[in-house]
């Protein structure tokens, strides 16, 4: 008998997500992921000063604001014609701001968002040791008011008591660590969340030796944590929950826009980036070139008036909450008609396929530890592991990059404001591929578009009947306990969904905006 | 004894409703240093008080109906409602739904009005919850409103405190919550916008480290110049907050010190019409305007007062009368020369 399980709201993700699955015989037959909020942020930009984008678009998401700010800045750079003349300092500072936030986001995700699926806080109830954190948790439990840790799903916590306790201590420590990571971002970002630093043309912050030193040592502390807590915890969980290497495979096709500029080539597709740009299909681990023209979006299952599969800029999108057959505010992006997953896993695979030795080393190491084949990467744990690996790599790189800063050199390139042009910004947010497009006319924003990672991941089924990646991951999953559908939430959370990002998309009503060439010159 | 002690601690549950939000304020709260967020969650935020985060979709363990149940359970007890994000009111509020009932989603508007009535106090955290914020800008496609605006429409009188900021400074939230715990929401002195005076009274402009440059007339023309950022659109002269003092991220940095003009994110006008980079008027005179310019315009308008008119009239009358009078006037005077 088919039962419907509805999880609304899905907690421990960013934003409003609803999951609806049809379970038949203990196996998920149908899955629907629905973004439950819509804000229309790009509309707000229309007619405004284009430079506002770097600030306003950050408010798409409070966990990854730097990514949106940076994507907007990339698009503005191109539109204002300064993409090729971003100073070295500006470029490096942007990487530092973005990278430090990666570290924050991943730590936040694994511990604050993901951990409670695998860790039993109650193990601390009878703690008798001297660790002050654990004692505090114990007292807390003793008081009996256990929100937000309770209520929760019960019945599948496999770590030993000691391991649980250690994990809880790490959870608390992770709170410190991610705060530290935000401080690191704030050194050059002004404040976090919502940095006040990245602008079109560069960065407003001025590096100085004391800031470099402070940043370096914060990252160092973070690396300590990553090396001693984060990575081991991921591996520990992977060990205890190793069946999850085979759960939540998803579409097994991946997209990465590349991230962390190593130079300032005005053409985004040619710019050299630390994590490379490209498409990886399945376990052949070949890196295919990205052609941005092949990106389309459909709204068949989305609460917008239908327009078929069009390039992000074409057609019109009008909210229609009562549309039959639709169930999400999220659109369905497709590449060349195919479903692609984005995120750390996508980036690690792209980097692996692109020949990055460190990535290959770490990924192979993890696989070896579990005697797993590369297929194992396409799973819940694969995603967690990829995220952890990426976190470590980025942190290491941050330490190198910060030392390349040159205090006293400019960080900003000025530009005239009265332009009529367009620009595209493509890069990777912590959660995956992110693109912003802007059209400026007479110095004011004529049009703005953003296609964000979670749209790729959490998008609904398209006109061809292809479910989105999360949906695909859910389909075929065995659910042991319908009342405690751990599997479902664990799968969803492994994607690190950020729904606020996913549901911002809106284009102006009823206007044909003409053809926009993605990836070409402005 | 511990049990007794434990029960001597007052538990105050919090329902954290995230509506049209970006979660920035939640993340910012995680950055709180003194107390740390773990202290807030696990320990007594103030001696004798513990905040129980009963419902917060971003960090709570439960999902789905389990989570909603937690909310429903809590709302029957005395609780504090914290609203993050704007309340979308367009299309019946269906642009934002949390949880399901009877097969359809429950709008955030519904949540906030129901919870708002029941709460002991409401804290609207972040500019979006306070004034509508970014989603409410320009054409406001979602009909976003601040919490107080919604309450006013619905006639809800629960004491509400606005904590604008984008994202809000964690200290402001912690401080406000502590004040509410200690003395109730009415004990918090708020200004005309409902913002606690203890954080939002001072003007950024008056406490800015670059004020000296402003007074001396040195302005940055582009990012990177070390001078006052007024010309680049700094809203310091109209923004009320204690950012220069508190700074962000445990005092690491703040907008101005990072060379970026203040956006005025605590003000109801945020994000300001047309552009965030336009200059704002300065309310009070500052030294450069108190220096006389090389040429001061002291031109007086010609006083066409009644006195002039009368005088002119009389003179004209006299002259006219004389001219018109012809020969017959024998005894008349002459008008000679002076």
Layout of secondary structure:
The complex is a heterodimer of chains A (522) and B (338).
Chain A (H helix, E strand, L loop, with lengths): L1 E6 L9 E8 L2 E9 L5 H5 L6 H5 L8 H16 L7 H27 L17 H12 L17 H29 L8 E2 L2 E2 L5 H32 L12 E9 L11 E9 L5 E2 L6 E4 L33 E4 L8 H11 L2 H13 L10 H23 L18 E9 L2 E10 L2 E8 L1 H6 L10 H6 L11 H9 L4 H4 L20
Antiparallel strand pairs in A: 1-2, 2-3, 4-5, 6-7, 7-8, 9-10, 11-12, 12-13
Helix pairs in contact in A: 4-6, 4-7, 4-10, 6-7, 7-10, 8-9, 8-10, 9-10, 10-13
Chain B lengths: L1 H6 L2 E9 L5 H7 L6 H6 L1 E3 L2 E7 L8 H12 L4 E5 L2 E2 L8 E5 L2 E4 H11 L2 E5 H6 L12 E2 L1 H8 L5 E4 L6 H14 L13 H4 L10 H6 L26 H4 L40 H4 L15 H19 L14
Helix pairs in contact in B: 2-8, 5-7
CATH homologous superfamily of chain A, by name? Cytochrome-c3 Hydrogenase, chain B
Unreliable stretches of chain A? 504-522
**Share of β-strand residues of chain A:** 15-25%
What pair of chains forms the biggest interface?
Answer: A-B, 96 and 95 residues
Mean pLDDT of chain A: 85
Enumerate the spans of chain B where pLDDT stays under 50 for 5 or more consecutive residues: 326-338
User: What is the topology, as strand order, of the major beta sheet of chain B?
Assistant: 2-3-1-4-8-10
Binding site for Fe cation (chain A): 64, 501
Keywords (chain A): Iron, Magnesium, Metal-binding, Nickel, Oxidoreductase, Periplasm
Binding site for Ni(2+) (chain A): 61, 64
InterPro entries (chain A): Ni-dep_hyd_lsu, Ni-dep_hyd_lsu_Ni_BS, NiFe-Hase_large, NiFe/NiFeSe_hydrgnase_LSU
């Amino acid at each position: 008998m088919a039962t419907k399980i509805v999880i609304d709201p899905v907690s421990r993700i960013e934003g409003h997500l609803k999951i609806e699955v049809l379970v038949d015989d203990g196996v998920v037959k149908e899955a629907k992921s629905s973004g439950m909020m819509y804000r229309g942020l790009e509309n707000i930009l229309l007619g405004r000063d284009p430079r506002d984008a770097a600030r306003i678009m950050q408010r798409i998401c409070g966990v990854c604001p730097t990514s949106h700010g940076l994507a907007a800045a990339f698009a503005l750079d191109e539109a204002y014609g300064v993409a090729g003349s971003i100073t070295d300092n500006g470029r490096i500072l942007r990487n530092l701001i973005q990278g430090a936030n990666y570290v924050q986001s991943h730590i936040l995700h694994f511990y604050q968002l993901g951990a409670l699926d695998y860790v039993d806080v109650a193990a601390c109830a009878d703690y008798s040791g001297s660790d002050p954190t654990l004692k505090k948790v114990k007292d807390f439990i003793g008081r009996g008011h256990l929100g937000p840790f309770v209520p929760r799903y019960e019945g599948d916590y496999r770590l030993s008591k000691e391991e649980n306790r250690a994990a809880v201590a790490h959870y608390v420590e992770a709170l410190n660590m991610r705060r530290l990571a935000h401080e690191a971002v704030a050194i050059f970002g002004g404040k976090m969340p919502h940095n006040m630093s990245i602008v079109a043309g560069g960065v407003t912050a001025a590096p100085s030796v004391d800031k470099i030193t402070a940043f370096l040592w914060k990252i160092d502390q973070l690396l300590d944590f990553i090396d001693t807590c984060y990575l081991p915890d991921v591996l520990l969980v992977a060990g205890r929950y190793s069946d999850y290497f085979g759960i939540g495979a998803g579409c097994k096709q991946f997209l990465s826009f590349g991230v962390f500029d190593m130079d300032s080539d005005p053409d985004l597709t040619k710019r050299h980036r630390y994590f490379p740009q490209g498409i990886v299909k399945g376990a052949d681990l070949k890196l295919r070139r990205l052609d941005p023209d092949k990106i389309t979006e459909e709204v068949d299952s989305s609460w917008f008036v239908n327009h078929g599969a069009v390039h992000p800029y074409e057609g019109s999108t009008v909210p229609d909450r009562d549309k039959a057959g639709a169930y999400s505010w999220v659109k369905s992006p497709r590449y060349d008609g195919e479903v692609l997953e984005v995120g750390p896993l996508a980036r690690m695979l792209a980097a692996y396929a692109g020949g990055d030795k460190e990535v290959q080393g770490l990924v192979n190491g993890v696989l070896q530890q579990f005697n797993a084949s590369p297929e194992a990467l396409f799973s819940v744990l694969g995603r967690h592991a990829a995220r952890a690996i990426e976190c470590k790599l980025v942190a290491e790189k941050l330490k190198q990059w910060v030392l390349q800063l040159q205090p006293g050199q400019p960080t900003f390139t000025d530009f005239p404001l009265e332009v009529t042009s367009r620009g595209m910004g493509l890069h990777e947010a912590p959660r995956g591929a992110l693109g912003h497009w802007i059209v400026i006319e007479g110095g004011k924003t004529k049009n703005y578009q953003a296609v964000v990672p979670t749209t790729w991941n959490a998008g609904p089924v398209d006109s061809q009947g292809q479910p989105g990646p999360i949906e695909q991951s859910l389909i075929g999953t065995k659910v042991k306990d319908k009342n405690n559908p751990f599997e479902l939430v664990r799968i969803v959370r492994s994607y690190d969904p950020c729904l606020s990002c996913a549901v911002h998309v809106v284009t102006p009503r009823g206007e044909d905006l003409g053809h926009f060439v993605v990836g070409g010159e402005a | 004894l511990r049990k007794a002690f434990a029960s001597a601690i007052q538990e105050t549950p919090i329902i954290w409703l995230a509506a049209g939000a970006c979660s920035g304020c939640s993340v910012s709260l995680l950055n709180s240093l003194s107390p740390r967020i773990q202290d807030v969650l696990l320990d007594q935020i103030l001696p004798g008080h513990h905040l129980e985060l009963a419902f917060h979709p971003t960090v709570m363990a439960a999902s789905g109906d389990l989570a909603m149940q937690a909310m429903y359970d809590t709302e029957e007890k005395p609780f504090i409602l914290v609203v993050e994000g704007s309340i979308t009111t367009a299309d019946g509020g269906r642009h934002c739904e949390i949880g399901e009932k009877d097969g359809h989603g429950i709008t955030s508007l519904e949540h906030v009005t129901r919870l708002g009535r029941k709460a002991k106090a409401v804290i609207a955290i972040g500019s979006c919850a306070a004034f509508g914020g970014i989603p409410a800008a320009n054409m406001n496609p979602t009909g976003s409103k601040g919490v107080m605006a919604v309450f006013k429409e619905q006639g809800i009188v629960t004491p509400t405190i606005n904590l604008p900021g984008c994202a809000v400074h964690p200290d402001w939230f912690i401080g406000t919550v502590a004040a509410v715990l200690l003395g109730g929401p009415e004990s918090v002195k708020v200004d005309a916008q409902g913002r606690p005076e203890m954080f939002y009274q001072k003007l950024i402009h008056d406490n800015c480290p670059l004020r000296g440059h402003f007074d001396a007339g040195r302005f940055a023309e582009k990012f990177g110049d070390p001078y006052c950022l007024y010309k680049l659109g700094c809203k310091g002269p109209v923004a009320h907050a204690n950012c220069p003092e508190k700074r962000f991220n445990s005092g690491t940095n703040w907008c101005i010190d990072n060379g970026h003009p203040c956006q005025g994110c605590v003000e109801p006008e945020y994000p300001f019409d047309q552009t965030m980079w336009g200059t704002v008027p300065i309310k009070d005179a500052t030294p450069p305007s108190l220096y006389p310019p090389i040429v001061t315009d002291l031109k007086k308008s010609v006083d066409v007062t009644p006195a002039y008119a009368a005088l002119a009239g009389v003179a004209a009358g006299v002259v006219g009368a004389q001219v018109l009078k012809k020969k017959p006037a024998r005894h008349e005077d002459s008008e000679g020369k002076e």
